[in-house]
Amino acid sequence: MRSTDNVRYVKGVGEKRAELFRQLGIESVGALLRHYPRSYIDRSRPLKLREAPFDRPCCIKAKVFSEVREIYVRHKMVLYKFFANDGEENVEITLFNQKWAAEKLEFGKEFLFYGQVNRTLFSCEMSSPEIYDSTEQTISPVYPQTAGLNSKAISKAIQNALSQFVPDDPLPETLRQKYSLISLKEALFGIHFPKTFRDVEAARKRLVFEELFFLQTGILFQKSSRSNYTPVKISGQFLDEFKTRLPFTLTEAQSNAILQCLNDMQSGRPMSRLVQGDVGSGKTAVAVALSYCAAKENWQSVIMAPTEVLATQHFETFRNLLKNSGINVALLTGSVTKAKKAKIKEAVLNGEYDIVIGTHAVLQDDVCFKRLGLIVTDEQHRFGVEQRTSLTAKGNEPHMLVMSATPIPRTMSLIFYGDLDISIIDSLPRGRQPIATYLIDSSIRQRSYNYIRNHLDQGRQGYIVCPMVEENETADLASAVKYYEDIKENDFKNYTVGLLHGKMKPKEKDAVMKAFASGEIQLLVSTTVIEVGIDVPNAVIMLIENAERFGLSQLHQLRGRIGRGQYASTCILLSDRGGNDTKQRLKFMCSTTDGFKVADKDLELRGPGDFLGKRQHGLPELKIADLSEDMELFRAAGNAAKELYRTDPTLKSPENQCLRTEISTLFKTAKTYGYN
Ligand code: ADP
Ligand code: MG
Hints:
By secondary structure, the chain is an alpha/beta fold. The chain has 23 helices and 23 strands. Strands 2, 3, 4, 5, 6, 7, 8 and 9 form an eight-stranded mixed β-sheet that branches. Strands 13-14-12-15-16-11-17 form a seven-stranded parallel β-sheet, sandwiched between helices. It is globular and about 100 Å long. Bound molecules: adenosine-5'-diphosphate and magnesium ion. Residues 283-284, 378, 405, 533 line the site of magnesium ion. The site of magnesium ion (MG) has 5 residues, from helix 10.
């Protein structure tokens, strides 16, 4: 038998059960063995009745100490009542209809009773406990299960599988010794059939290590599979010249990021770098500086934005900063007419445009370059590794810069962007006023409207954000539109109010954004389309309706639209719904504007799985490791991965063959990884 064999070949499984296993995502024997328990029921150390906790079930070992009385309550309902004694005191146990259980309860025989012990002043009782023979004094696993396939059945199947076959250990002996890890066989028995919790611990350590080791090895080999030669060399000699064009001085953090990039770009090896900076930290200036340097040295750049609104905004920013520089900038989005698009494409191919800015979708298809030297993708976390790879094909090993405004915890960036080098812009431009955030409910809505009107009267601008979540798009859209119409006619009838939502035509969106940027629109009612990247420094106030419907990172992104200029800004979270947890979450937003803190909290609340969207990153799922707890193992496994790469960079050594197979099946999209 082999790991890849279908699970139906396991003794006692067969077609029917195999179907149930499939529902749990288990198709192969290997997957079955890697279906780890979610938790354990501990019957290994039964308690005395007096030790029983009052708020949760436990296991008691006691002898049947009375006759079992049958009580017929009504038709088809029988109670069985008896006393059991743990050597110290009696407990009265009641079973409902469990004839089969009642029948084995011989007087004087000892059993394990697993359930909740309820105590009053005068009595001690258990109701419907699970009953086990005293020989079953073990730890039993609780598996993620499905109807028709309970933990016991899963456990049995695993036991049978392990009696038929034990997979080869992908971790070489030397590695296991170095990191004090037990063998795969021991670990599988330890995790599925532990005798003590020490067994579980040792097994878990080994399996978590293995998982994080595979992951980091895969990433490392992927990184090393990148070409280490590029003809694109950009020295950056025009950087100082560029700086004189800026209406501000770059922050030290911006300068450092630019220098790190230029360092890569003149190295002769293609750059793959992530610039991470909190919202408003000035990432755009970094992109302009680099593409300016590239253009001056005769290389084309392409800037990719996730939305049309954002692409257009970048286009304006670039054009302003590059006025009269001899550098030509093109905008290529879905709303550009076909004829015009064709013209632009031709000019791009001829090298007449130095910088092309556009949405991902448009730039992804048939745009070809004469001398592409630099690719910048803004807000990249929305795109996966694969898309990134397909882009580089548009040039001869161009440099690649990814800009992300989602500050993510360090560990997460190692995983999600493990194939990239990282620069962090860790400070905001000087003179930024802090954003104050408040949580209110609609009882003081009028006051908040007053507050907004005051700011508009002083010449500032503001946003009102209405949630628009996917499941409920139509209804949400209707309510945003209605909201807009209502406040335009009533509370804000003396002001110019605009509306922006994702279902508008690109041209309409563009017109609204332009009007808002120029100050013509004073108050913008919007759905989350403004979440990404919009930059209007005169906007200083934001009211977020139904704030409870947003995640923390999303709120942080939204809030990042204000506090971008010289004025103090205010963000008002309005929420009438949600329990304590929601309140806590929103209060947390009021307590910090630090994107990294927000990200940590978000990760803690949502778990790594949901953090960046499931599987969007194209990496294998973590089945047993928990990144909030297993940092030490994460680091150890990372070191082991580096060590492996140093000693056997092609994974050719015999002792690593099993490892090689495991990892390449795990990273199924093998073509993007370093194995061939
Ligand atoms: P983000 O990092 O969120 O993309 P942007 O690049 O949109 O931030 O920059 C936010 C605002 O800060 C812009 O209005 C930009 O002109 C301004 N800005 C950027 N760098 C500086 C700086 N060094 N000093 C002052 N203002 C700056
Ligand atoms: Mg930005």
